[in-house]
Amino acid sequence: MNTLAKWLIVAFLVTVPLWLGNQYQYHVLIMMGIFTIGAMSLNLLLGYTGQLSLGHVAFFGIGAYTSSLVSLGFDLQLTDSYTFVVEPKPVWFAFFCALIVSGLCGWFVGKLSFRVRGAYFVIVTISFAEVVRLVALNWVDLTEGPMALNNIPPLASGVPWMEAGALSRRVANYYMVLAVGLVAFLIIQRLVQSRVGRAMIALRENESLAKSVGVDVTRYLVLAAITSAAIAGAAGALYAHYVRIVDPDVFLFIYTVTMVIMVISGGKGTLAGPLVGGLIFGILPELTRGHMLPEVQWIVYGALMILIVFFLPQGIVPAVQRGWATWQKRRDQSARDTSASNGRRQEVAR
Fold this sequence. Notes:
mainly alpha, ABC transporter involved in vitamin B12 uptake, BtuC, two-stranded antiparallel sheet, two-stranded antiparallel ribbon, 4 strands, 74% helix
């Protein structure tokens, strides 16, 4: 994707509120954007290092709870005589706290789980997500457990030009999600196109060979885990401040499955893959909602995923790239053949 195409896409996304007036459609776009950011973060691990994390929703939920608690304020009794009190903080401060805490959890899980590979790594990540969910469910004094944290401040709180009434709440949230998504995309792009990204790809392709040429496996995998977890935490914080209520269901396994589907269907290991996967599987349920029963929708959803994996095993974006390259190659070959044919005709004419 060239620079002009990227700028045209960004310009289109920025102008969406100028012609979209349906509030429900805003909701669909916002939720799709949030989970696309989560898919982008998962793609950094799955696509560029080859590590499948089925507990990625843990970082999403940690970001949601951290940002919610810091923005609401909380008190935690550590001993009989001492209570740790945090007064309500601005939303922007809570958001950055979510990034930091999620990143630290990514560092911890990376240090712990990257000692193993394959199915063992998957088990460790799933177990971590389940432990975090149980903590959120049972630590009622802090998280309110199944009663949920509610009245979470909106995402645009503290941003004067968004509070002034010039923008509706959903339009403001749309722009916030778009801004975070663009920043996350640029960070991932800068990372994977650098020396660090090349080292990650080398580990994915052949870890033994990468180690033999001096690539520090643990260092680069942990760096990917920290970055991926922080971006997932940002997506979770966006989710919390948008829906304004968070309960342990934020750790549901279906959210990880949704992110994995977006990555694999779009094309893992590509920058545009999660964006395309998020677009298709974010809008598809809404397109079929008014025409099919819920059970039929899930059948169509699953059938489309099977067809993509069967006919496009590397994803939609790599298939489009291969098709474009083949078309250009044929066009160039046709141009060369035409030029050669014209040259022969001119020689015959002479």
